[in-house]
Amino acid sequence: MSSRLLTHIKQLVNVRTGDQPLYGKEMAELPCLNDAWLLLEGDEIAGFGRMDSIKRDLPSLPRAQTDCSGRLVLPAWCDSHTHLVYAGSRENEFVDKIRGLSYAEINARGGGILNTVQKIKEISEDELFRISWKRLEELARMGTGAIEIKSGYGLSLEGELKMLRVIRQLKEKSPLQIRSTFLGAHTYPPVYRDHHEGYIREIVEEMLPIIAKEKLADYIDVFCENGFFNPEESETILKAGLQYGLQAKMHVNQLNAIGGIETGIRLNALSMDHLETLTTGEISRLKNSGWKGFCTLLPTAAFFLRMPYPPARQLLESGLAITLASDYNPGSSPSGNMNTVFSLSCIQMRLLPEEALNAATLNGAFAMGLGHTMGSLAVGKTANCLISAPVPSLAYLPYRFGSNLIDKVIIRGQFVA
Amino acid sequence: MSSRLLTHIKQLVNVRTGDQPLYGKEMAELPCLNDAWLLLEGDEIAGFGRMDSIKRDLPSLPRAQTDCSGRLVLPAWCDSHTHLVYAGSRENEFVDKIRGLSYAEINARGGGILNTVQKIKEISEDELFRISWKRLEELARMGTGAIEIKSGYGLSLEGELKMLRVIRQLKEKSPLQIRSTFLGAHTYPPVYRDHHEGYIREIVEEMLPIIAKEKLADYIDVFCENGFFNPEESETILKAGLQYGLQAKMHVNQLNAIGGIETGIRLNALSMDHLETLTTGEISRLKNSGWKGFCTLLPTAAFFLRMPYPPARQLLESGLAITLASDYNPGSSPSGNMNTVFSLSCIQMRLLPEEALNAATLNGAFAMGLGHTMGSLAVGKTANCLISAPVPSLAYLPYRFGSNLIDKVIIRGQFVA
């Protein structure tokens, strides 16, 4: 088993057992250790301590050492909401929006989700794996160590299975920890546009049994929104998923507040994601309901769509747990760069660097059911960590939003090339 | 004289003699050449053409060739507004603002411009050169080929000369084309807070004569803003500069519309910069005045300060010329990444990729008096160009805001390491 020692680390960031997610004010607490060492053995963190006691703590030092003078060492990012498996890109639609075309006009030109659905239909499973793998490699270089990936561009039994099988291949072959979410209820396929119950029946009676049988998904998700799935339809689908052991996640309150929050509370959703249009009343409901899930915020999507950001500070002040994720997808967030998410959260949503870091590491891990092995630097947790460039402090990372300040990435104890 | 040939270029972008800046609708026009070659000889562009006629056009091919299959080749960025020469960083102030501290409270804690002024006072000229050089190197790697740098953190004869001499050293030693702007009127030093005419006299009678004699500046600039320099004070200073042959630039309408636009029109400013609070009436005035200068927009500053963006589309619709620049400085835009500026302009200010590209290259060059040698791909212009990663189109660059898609940078015919 190979060992690697990181020495003279300016600051070890988020050093804690991290066996519980963080709520409200706790999110501003970020345990750190200055002038430290970190020992990795195999794919696990084996120890850490202060440099001044390294000779006492580690009488025999491993040969493989990395000097981290002036540098921070952070846990790798845990990105709990992405649509990374897709085909094609939609920069033409991006330009159409700049030109002022409406959502309806873009859809009429074959844009929107259905554009990607068509491309998923045309692409082979092998090719879809290949391009998804390349994206995953780029994200690993940028510091993502764990990631959730959704289906939802299939919208048919065949298409959804194709996506979920690609996600399974990624799980099997990538050193990143991957979680899979079934999002058959992303939108209605055209044939079911005026016949919602027909598609919901297809999801519940045809897709779910096979997906469950083949163990292709860890979670189930639904896009609860005007013109997509209303709260009742969402509840039907999520309940069906729960019967197969798939815990619920939700896209909710992105464009409109239509009551989906109540559904999420009732079904004890693991996370409710987006929340751009969350009302003060809904925040109170979340707070008073005793719900212990995650408010997953996707600031790059709000940024890219020129929308208001979700009310991050109010959520924290209400004692709720927030998570930051990239929403990586070709339509509304064509980036999976979690460093950008981190920076954008501080600059635009006024999160403290400590809060944003916790949201994008430890809480992100818990929002994927991975909190016990990922998201903080603790003995026994997976050896996923980032080595920064020499910087004065953690706050310098989001402050310098235009620079890549992650110099090296370690996933399962191995440097990412 | 060394020659280098770029071959099989998917698209050569902004191919034109570019001997005139672009106004209004012209900014959406971007001449390109598909499947092309580009020949660099020494530090100049020596020729270009289509691959299918390369054997006829170039009977003897140079040995040094670079295959650019699938890639775009663009002119390097021309960044016409920066404060790159500074000491220290201000991420603590960034965090203070997140915590909700007011501008006044931050100033009371020693933050703001005066924080950097103090650090300039303490640092040696050699050390200031060294850290500025490192920043310039990072920007070159990111694709900046020409840059304007302002003084303004000295606020004393000694301090301003220190900064301007550092800029002169950068000019002499860097392959980047650099223009120098005297911004003694950045704010009032504390001793002159209630005695404005004293500082203005110091600028006009002490600083300007020496700066002019030593040829330390190409332009003069002033921060025209409530609590800083009012329009009358600005006019006095800019006129004094004009007498020494320094054309005027202005920081104007960043926080308030206080009449500085009229001053800029009257003095025929080369550029008026910021413009976040420009009114519809002022846009009409600019349009009807016959002023032919540049509206320099600094979207990363608006982004970082959580302010509204300047009215880019209205300016274009009024037939005005816009320029995009980074405003690189430690307080309000701690990034000089012009790729971020390009992307942000399309996403947040709804500029078409073609408009933003022209604004950040050709018009940027003209806003530094460099339009005849920089800012487009033309025979005889300086060999400053960017080679992108393989991408489907120009629009893909701003669309993929989280990825660095500039693979290689050539400055004066040489690859940047």
Brief account:
Two copies of one chain form a homodimer. The first copy, chain A, is an alpha/beta fold and 417 residues long.
Report on the structure:
2 copies of one chain form a homodimer. The first copy, chain A, has 16 helices and 16 strands. The first copy, chain A, is an alpha/beta fold and 417 residues long. The first copy, chain A, folds into 2 domains: 3-75 and 375-415, Urease, subunit C, domain 1 (Roll); 78-366, Metal-dependent hydrolases (TIM Barrel, Alpha-Beta Barrel). In chain A, strands 1, 2, 3, 4, 5, 14, 15 and 16 form an 8-stranded mixed beta sheet that branches. In chain A, strand 2 and strand 3 form a beta hairpin. In chain A, helix 5 (125-142) packs across helix 6 (157-173) and helix 6 runs parallel beside helix 7 (196-213). Chain A starts with a strand and ends with a strand. The A-B interface holds A 89-92, 94-95, 98-100, 138, 142, 300, 303-304, 306, 326, 334-337, 340, 346-348, 350-353, 392-393, 395-396, 398-404 and B 89-92, 94-95, 98-100, 138, 142, 300, 303-304, 306, 326, 334-337, 339-340, 346-348, 350-353, 392-393, 395-396, 398-404.
